[in-house]
Predict the structure.
Amino acid sequence: MTGDTWVQVVERLETSVDQMVRFQSELVACPALGPDNGGRGEAEKAALVEAWLKKMNPDQILHVDAPDHRVPGGRRPNLIALFQGRGQGRVWVLSHLDVVPDGGRSLWDSDPFVLRRDGDRIHGRGVEDNHQAIVTSLFAVQALRDAGLKPAADVGLIFVSDEETGSAYGLAHVLGERPDLFTPADLIIVPDTGQPDGAMVEIAEKSILWLKFTVTGRQCHASRPHLGLNTLRASARMICALDEALPRAFGERNDLFLVPASTFEPTKKEANVANVNTIPGEDVFYFDSRLLPNYDLARVKAEFERVVRETAAASAVTVKIEPVQELQAPPATPADAPVVRALVKAIAAVHGREAHPRGVGGGTVAAFFRKKSLPAAVWSTLAGTAHMPNEFALLSNHLADAKIMAYVYLRLDQG
């Protein structure tokens, strides 16, 4: 691969920005909300993406759809396009088709499902999460084709459903139905989180533990508190006791992670009584905990229960503890895995900066690969507006990410 050839690829990408905007405009206008988010699913958007793919003449298009009676047509699409390379191996890039709800149109400066361009910025629901990945992975292949090049290894583009609501109908289904598609030697890239400078390669994540606490006491008039058991006060005591005990019990640090310690955050609080002068007889609150992966969640839950039950006994109330979400983090992708090395070299070539493997506190869809012992790296160059009103993405980030993907497809890191 000559320097002149790489220049041709870059030139083709730099002249494709208007096409990227057009593709983004079509994606934004095609909301893909899963049924858990009140939508009709991802079929229409999958058809749109497939139409763009077919213009590129992929060597194979596969459908690994998941049955779901809640959506029209009864299936959630998972689309795979394969492009044959010159040699052995395969590079995968996984994007997701679904988006989150707009959160209330009054919070937006313009229609969230009509693309708005303002210089380098494009606005609309999904432009960053995860349309940027859809667009850049596809246009990186297109640039190679326009330059008359084949990738060094096969390239597989995966477009899955249901990422925003658990992935049971998305990547988990694909891995269950077609495990033969993947090997530990593959380079697997998931462009679904990242930093504005594009220099973070996510290789590990924390375990997730969400717990619901229902505190039961006795309701009474606020002027006669001796007749009741105030569950709001009991909940407050429990939260304070947990705030003190949990960081002490699970206080290890790991500097691989952007937040290097485990976190335990009281978050949601359900309404209890409707009027001020009633002492609540029931109170419900939640904790969102993100644990360093070396901690066993059963042990963490046991500590939650010990602290809460001791505090409840002191307040003469009872408490019910229920898991809302419980995900033990899989082993990290090795920092020297081929996919990490390839991305680090590509980021240096395109961005001119040194990238670093890191861990994150949020769960990522890459966990499904890692649970199958398939090393995956999560990376992108993002403005960080996912799930926000007035979500926007930068076209300069689109261009940079497409170049980095093309660099990896050509395996210039081995040159």
User: Anything to note?
Assistant: Residues 109 and 155 are 39 Å apart (CA to CA). The first strand starts at residue 60 and ends at 63. The mean pLDDT is 96. The first helix runs from residue 3 to 14.
